[in-house]
Amino acid sequence: MSALPACPQCGSEYAYEDGALLICPECGHEWNASEPLAQGKVFRDANGNELQDGDTVTVIKDLKVKGSSLVVKVGTKVKNIRLTEEGDHDIDCKVDGIGPMKLKTEFVKKA
């Protein structure tokens, strides 16, 4: 019996083969067994610079805060970002005067 790789999404070791696909019974994730697993998504800012966890970025467009009358102004610096692949927003951060929020990488540039 050959050892199958763990699920890239949840890390479960109980993946099984179904034709050319591997399937995780715990989270339902399916992936192609013949393709090499990606080492992680590369996050790039509006100018194409690669972003890393802990970077400082600058907002390049006025952004309205959903559910509030607040606005994140152009030029606002956001320190110590955390990159995430959850949903369509790539950056978890804390903006001074506003609090925790999520941003898209297309609206920031590396400072």
Automatic annotation (TrEMBL):
Family assignment from sequence similarity: Belongs to the YjdM family.
Source organism of the structure: Pseudidiomarina aestuarii
Pfam families referenced in this protein's UniProt entry, alphabetically: YjdM, Zn_Ribbon_YjdM
Upper lineage: Bacteria, Pseudomonadati, Pseudomonadota, Gammaproteobacteria, Alteromonadales
Residues of the Protein YjdM C-terminal domain: 44-111
Official protein name in the record: Alkylphosphonate utilization protein
Span of domain Protein YjdM N-terminal: 4-32
